[in-house]
Every structure is written in structure tokens, then in C-alpha cells.
């Protein structure tokens, strides 16, 4: 089995893993219902805070929440086993092979996350935002979505790599999601938050994804001519590289050096 | 004699918030190829730390360690491809995959050619009674089934040296029996097994050599027979007679203890006699046996000290020792 076959084989298994975690139709159905109720709730909050402008603000950011959920909570659940301190088998393969497996898995998650984003956006834009009608733009946003996927994935990896005890580990992604919803620039503009939260939000990949996504969807100019989008893409790339590096290091971290 | 493990003055310390704890201290031992080596001791004795140093997951603080002829400081990658580590528990398997897919995944990590891997998977699923459940998701497996899958995962790449940390935990009696047979079979095929268990009966049945660890030190080691010889303060005999002995036998003579005869279901009588290891006591025991000859001795068996008793003696001895020191 050469490296290519090995990665392909593991990507196939990753797809099965992901499919079995939650079957696709249940997954789509659950999140479709969730996104509609979530959107109505956020619009209600946005209306209280700031009226019509806030409503659209909430709408665009909100699209990414279910995808973020998939990407870093599910990724976390799967990778928890791979951070297990007893996994000698993972230490037998090269870091390159391990990285290739991760990229294969990222693609699996991306495909799933991408369709969810597309689906929810199509539903929302057609039902709740009359006249928006440019959801086909999403196809052009594949690089942005891929980076969003990789950075969210790296956040899941980071949580798994913390390797805290089981109960704390299981609660952490859910708490993180609440935190990310607060500082992710979804519902409340980050400028309206206390300074400490504004600073923290800079270290949250989801916030940069939301900013890039919002700039891409709302601006009339093509996104590839918008320098703000490029800055956000660069930040997302850095988050992805850091997340992956943490994972690769954490696999070997249990071979502790003498005290 | 070929050794798969050579440990010399092996120590491991852990630094916890400025306090240095010595988990393992000056362990020196060897493990012979093709044997089952038992590492026994109470919880927290240092067994897991020792195993993790041998399987390259932990570096020693000091000392020398060779595994399968490789130095653990330099050749850890070579060692890892030739060893298997069965640790059981809730982690280490992908619950979202079927039993078969789990084995495919772990096999692929060891780069086993696909056709060979499929054959091995069929073999181990069959051998461990998981063939019918091979396509079920692992999350639906019972605890015993998961443990069987853990065993298959550990053996899929045919390691030369196996570390088994309480392998029968969670298995039903049939599964336990199967696993013990597998371990003996592996041994017959020249594989070496390092076993930790709290089941003394299991250790007694399987292990060729045993090391008892307490507080990070090896207290004693040897074959079962050597340990029995070392810890038995007296010889215990069981004598089966066809007739009930109508004799008045003196108890406690020269330290000999004769228990009250018991009539068993086949009508025979059994007498248990403990004899101190002295020449006088052995001579007196000979006289007692000659007195019993008229009652038709059906069987005279020297009963060996059970490993469980040796273990308890070591643990209580060590505790007493510690109390004296403190």
C-alpha cells in the first residue's frame, strides 16, 4: 500500500466515520430546522438591538453557525481517539502521512459542511430575504469555505489536543460554541462588545470567517478585489497551519522527556 | 538465551508542581523471547509506567533499556512497528466505524498489503467470535465485544512483542478462556507477552516468569516454582484415604499441623497436613504417613502455595516493612 493508496483509503474510512456519526439526511434535516428557528431568534434579538441593519447583520453570520458546529464539535469527537496517549500505531507513520490523512479528513468535512452552508443559505435567502437571490455566488466562494472549514477543523483539533479529562473534554466544545457565538460577530457587532471580548474575538477563527463571508455576500464589488477579504483569508490560513501543527506535535507529546 | 527486554537501573520520575515523584526506581530485569512475563503489583505500583517505557511512550529519567535488541532512545520507530499494546477501556477504537473497518484502519497504519490485511481480519474476527458482528458499528458492541475487538486490533500486524494490560477485563468466562488460549498459542509461535493483571489465577496459569512491583521497585521475581520455594514456609500435603483413620494423631508436633479429616462425596477421607521445612519435621511426617498406610492411601499430593497467597504475603510484608521504617 503506497502513500497515495493509504491516504485515499483513510479518507474513505473518514467519510464512513462522518456518515455514521450522523447520517446525512438526518443531519441536514436537523440543521435546517435548527437554522430556521435560530435565525428567527437572532432576528428578534437584532431587531431589539438595532433594527433593519442589524437584522441582515445577524442573518449573514448566522449561516455559518451549523457549519461551525459540524466542523469543530464533530472533528473534536473523532480526533479525541487520535490524541489518545496510548496510540503507538499513530507513532509508526510519518508526520507527512499523518498530515495527509488529516487533509483527507478535512476534505470530507468540508464537503459536508459546504453542502450544509449552501442548503441553509438557499433556504434563508429564498424564504426570509426577498430579493437577495444571489446564492449562486456561494459556488464562487469555495476557497473561502474551504479555509473556513480548515480553520474550524483546526479549532476542533486544538480542543482535542488539550486532552483534558473525559467529562471536561466533552463539555468544552459546547461551551466553546456559546463563547464563539458571543464573540464571533454573528448576532451582535463585535464593536458593541466590551474591549476584552473584542480582543478575544481576534483569536477566534470563526469571527474572521464570518467577516470574510459577510464582506463577500454583502459587498457589491467582486470579493477578489476586496483587500479586507484577503486579510481575513490570510488570518484563516494562519489559524489552520497553527491548528494542524498543534495536532501533529500533540500526537508525539506523550513521549515525555525526563523530568 | 535470547532476550527481548533488557532493563538496567531503569528509573522514571514525574515532576508535579515542583514535587518530584519517583514512579519507578532502579528496575533491572530481562525478559526471555517466547515467554509470558507477568508484571504484578497493586494499583499505583509503577506497572503502567514500566510498560510505557518499554513500549516507547515514555522516556526513562535514567537507566538503560533495550527492546527487541533496539535502544529505546534511538530506535523508537523500529520498536513501534514490532510491538502491540492492548490497553482496553473506552478509547482506542472508532465507535463510528464497524468492527471490520476499525481493523482495516489500524491495519492500514501498519501498511499491511490490502489482501493480506483482509485475510488477517477474517482470521481474527473468526477466532474472537466477532464474524457475525463485523459490520455492526462499534458503538453498538457490548463491553466484552469491544475488548475482543481491542485484542484483534493489537494482533492485526502480528507484533513480535505484546504488552497486555489487564486483557481479560470485561470479558465473560468464555472470552477469558479463549484469550488465554490465544496467548498460549502466540507464545507457542515464539511471540513474547508482557502481561499485567490483578487476576492471580490468570498469572499462575499463563506466566513463565513473574516480577512483583511495589512503590516503583521490583520486590521479587522468578518462575512460579522459584517464588513458591521462596515464600513457602512449610510444605502442605493432601492425603486421600479409602478409610477413615481411627488413630489419635498428635497435632502441632514439631510445628506440624494436621487438620481434622474430612469425608468427601466419594466416601474417601482427606487429611491436610502442613509440615515445616526442617529435617526433623520431615522425618516426623514420614512416620505419620507410615501410620496412615493401613487406611489405604489413595493419593498423596504436595500442594503448592497459590500465587494469590504469595502476592498477599508480599503486599502485607511490604506494608509492614514500610510501617517499621516510618
UniProtKB/TrEMBL annotation, chain A:
GO molecular function: ABC-type transporter activity
Swiss-Prot/TrEMBL keywords: Membrane, Transmembrane, Transmembrane helix
InterPro entries: ABC2_TM, ABC_2_transport, Nod_factor_ABC_transporter
Membrane topology: Multi-pass membrane protein
Location within or outside the cell: Membrane
Keyword Membrane attributed: yes
The ABC-2 type transporter transmembrane domain, residue ranges: 24-215
Single GO cellular component term: ATP-binding cassette (ABC) transporter complex
Domain of life per record: Bacteria
A family per Pfam: ABC2_membrane
Transmembrane segments: 22-45, 57-79, 99-124, 136-160, 172-190, 229-248
Name assigned to this protein: ABC-2 type transporter transmembrane domain-containing protein
UniProtKB/TrEMBL annotation, chain B:
Pfam families in alphabetical order: ABC_tran
Keyword Transport: yes
SMART domains reported in the protein's UniProt record: AAA
Alphabetical list of InterPro entries matching this protein: AAA+_ATPase, ABC_transporter-like_ATP-bd, ABC_transporter_ATP-binding, P-loop_NTPase
PROSITE patterns: ABC_TRANSPORTER_2 (PS50893)
GO terms for MF: ATP binding; ATP hydrolysis activity
Record keywords, A-Z: ATP-binding, Nucleotide-binding, Transport
Sequence ranges assigned to domain ABC transporter in this UniProt record: 5-240
Superkingdom, taxonomy of origin: Bacteria
Keyword Transport: yes
CDD domains: ABC_DR_subfamily_A
UniProt protein name: ABC transporter domain-containing protein
